Amino acid sequence: MSEDKPVVPEDKQMAEPVREQVWPTFLFFSIVIVIASLGAYLMADYLWKLGWTFSSTILWVLFTILFSYLSFGFTHAFTGFILRRCGSAIAHMPSSMRNRDEDPEIEDGTRVAVVIPVYNEPVERVFAGIKAILESVDRTAHGELFDFFILSDSTQSEQWIAEQAAWVKLQRETGKGNRIFYRHRPDNLNKKSGNVSDFCRTWGPHYRYMIVLDADSVMSGETMVELLMRMEANPGIGLIQTAPIIVGGESLYGRMQQFSNQLYGPVFMEGLAFWQGRGGNFWGHNAIIRLQPFMEHCELPELPGRKPFGGHILSHDFVEAGLMQRAGWEVWLAQDLGGSFEEGPQGIIEAAQRDQRWCQGNLQHGMLLFAKELRGKTRVHLGNGILCYLSSAIWMLFMIVAMWKAAEQGIESIVPNKGSAEGFVLLGLTMFLLFTAKLFCIIDLALDRERCKGFGGFINACTSSFIETILSALIAPVMMIFYTRFVIYNLIGRSVGWSAQRRGAQGTSWDDAFAAHGAQSLIGILTSILAILIDPILFWWMSPVLIGLVLSIPVSVITSRLDLGLNAKHDGLFLVPVEYDAPREVREALDFEAVERKEFAGLTAAVLDPYLNAVHVSLLRKNRHRLLRGSKVYGDVDESKIPNEEKCDTRRYLAGRLLREGPSSLRTEEIFMVLSDIDSMLLLHREAWLRPDSYLAPWWRRAIKEMSASI
Q1: Does residue 127 contact residue 216 with C-beta atoms inside 8 Å?
Q2: Which of the chain's termini has less CB crowding within 10 Å, N or C?
Q3: Contact status, residue 451 vs residue 441, Cβ threshold 8 Å
Q4: Which of 272, 264, 268 is nearest to 468 (CA)?
Q5: Mind telling me which GO cellular component terms the entry cites (predicted)?
Q6: What is the mean pLDDT of the chain?
Q7: How many other C-beta atoms are found inside a 10 Å radius of the C-beta of residue 535?
Q8: Is 332 helix (H, G, I), strand (E, B) or coil?
Q9: pTM of the shown model
Q10: Edge to edge, what strands does the sheet with 218-219 contain?
Q11: How many C-beta neighbours within 10 Å does residue 235 have?
Q12: 671, pLDDT greater than 50
């Protein structure tokens, strides 16, 4: 990065901010409250006629929470459908946020940093995506305003060197070395939010805007420029969040999630944008941020107490959006803007592993729910995130109480009989809310012929939606058990680690499925037996949930398979518009060939390859002030085991041992330590090429011969 700092325009809050209309939010939540109140009344009336008991009180409270959450989701689909069909008649907000007839004038010095945090991600996929995005934005008239930053937090030494080599290759292929930067951060302090904060402190003053992407994100150049134009046209907006489209579905599960996102997503996103207005949310990626207010107001506090609820905030994005709004800046959802993509998990277990991290972060938000000066919409977003996971535990508790009540008062206490009109009305209303939301999306598709083509026609879309509904019904109880376990783990103080997300359809083995779902299947079997003993009718009443639990192992394996995903694609099942007419950026990002690297290939290249060694050392020099010393981060090195004749420091000793005994003689953290030291890397490169063979381990002798032969 050049030492000459460009003059970046100063952002100031609008002197007279646009007054936001409150009626959309009032109308939306009025509908939610009316529906929820109706359900709560019908349930109370039903339980009262059966004879109110203590279990009735618990059942009613749990039902009211679940039914209200169901009403909240239904209202998104209802309002979204109405707006998409009658949008011109209900101009609730300027959805484009600017006059599309003319582009705003971009102030001198305006630049955009495209930030891609990575953490032990597949190198080829990450850099294929970056190249596709870079070339896409360069095809626009404003490509020169965008610089790219790969912010690595990778903890694997081979991953680190592979990223550097890929960065050098990308610079050579694109000829844009002055706009593509790489930084490796060895300490991983505060995880992803700390990674982005480190960027803001170091390079933030050079840029007016920041587009944050995930390692699997893809965004078209046109979309990036449009985000820039919307920010320039609206000086009061601090953040614009796009609605990413899921792509890259390979397994049956991946294709199902991709289909659901692209069929149902537009309707639900329109409903979300309707009530949140200028008080939107941030999902951590595929968004543009005004850097100056972000750096001034969005520094995350440390929560009091011990983990998992105390300490650093894990789900930082929700909180950052709330802090931005608290400071007077607007946060928008660009639900009308396409060209924003991301990949999703390819199996149930991968989805659960991802949600385990999110669960802890969202439950943490309970510490902030009633924090001072947060806007009401921010509290709704935080509460919704909490309920997303807590509702599964409530659902499970509801089933337990229902079985208790059936055993206590008979099956009639929970299953409507012929004389219970309230019970059947309540059941019908619940089914209506569950399935009508999807029906709105199907009708919306039927009324859009062009969009319908992308799903293989209306009949094909309906068939796929029907199969998706069945599979979702089987998977929902499985995720209920997962989420309930995650919630319990957090309540008893068990924190989760920070692991890299698995990419691609690797498939779930039967052993892995048994380990992950064995307890769930057992719960399903035992609950089925208990339900039959109480009353066979209770078993049939609960069978939609119990079947999913009993079949969790085969469902997990089958839905994760790549071959079934390919067969579904061949047969047109779960076909989506992105496959029907794939954008160029998506095709290029997903068109990469994974490379199988030999053991210690990255370390060998960093030591022996003169160019890569020089690049690595140069980056270490630039990063010197970030490096932490010694065993503080990378693991304890027992100084007593260092021979007395070795008077050099720990790194020099490890470098010498690396040459004499080979890479396998060092622990992972010791190799990382050597790679982090400038003097050690210079020493290794010089000694490996100049020392006689008798001094070098057989590993290095073979590696030198192979490299010499390839030159």
Answers
A1: no
A2: C
A3: no
A4: 264
A5: plasma membrane
A6: 87
A7: 18
A8: strand
A9: 0.90
A10: 218-219, 340-343, 245-247
A11: 17
A12: yes
For 563-584, the pLDDT digits (tens) are 888 888 888 899 999 988 889 9
Which strands form 112-118's sheet, in the order they lie side by side?
Answer: 180-184, 146-152, 112-118, 209-212, 287-290, 237-242, 330-334
Q: Which spans in 93-249 are helix H?
A: 123-138, 157-174, 191-203, 221-233
**Angle ∠(478,479,483) on CA atoms, nearest 5:** 125
Which among 388-392, 422-426, 695-699, 707-711 has the top mean pLDDT? 388-392
Query: Please, which residues have CB within 8 angstroms of residue 69's CB and are 6 or more apart in sequence?
Result: 387, 391
Tell me the two tokens of residue 151: 């912010």
Domains of the chain: 112-246+276-343 (3.90.550.10), 601-710 (no CATH)
Side chain identity at residue 625, one-letter code: H
Q: Given pLDDT bands bounded at 50, 70 and 90, which one contains residue 421?
A: confident
- pLDDT tens-digit series, residues 492-501: 877 655 455 5
| Per-residue pLDDT tens digits for 604-661 | 999 999 999 999 999 998 877 544 433 333 344 344 433 333 434 688 888 989 999 9
Residue 270, classified by CB atoms within 10 Å of its CB into exposed (0-12), middle (13-18) or buried (19+), is: buried
DSSP string covering 57-82: HHHHHHHHHHHHHHHHHHHHHHHHHH
pLDDT, tens only, 164-193: 999 999 999 999 989 999 999 878 888 889
Number of H helices and E strands in the chain, helices first, is 27, 10
Q: Residue 695 — φ and ψ, nearest 5°?
A: -85, -25
User: In a 3-state reduction of DSSP, which class is residue 183?
Assistant: strand
Contacts of 3 (CB under 8 A, 6+ apart): none
Backbone angles phi, psi at 416, to 5 degrees: -60, 135
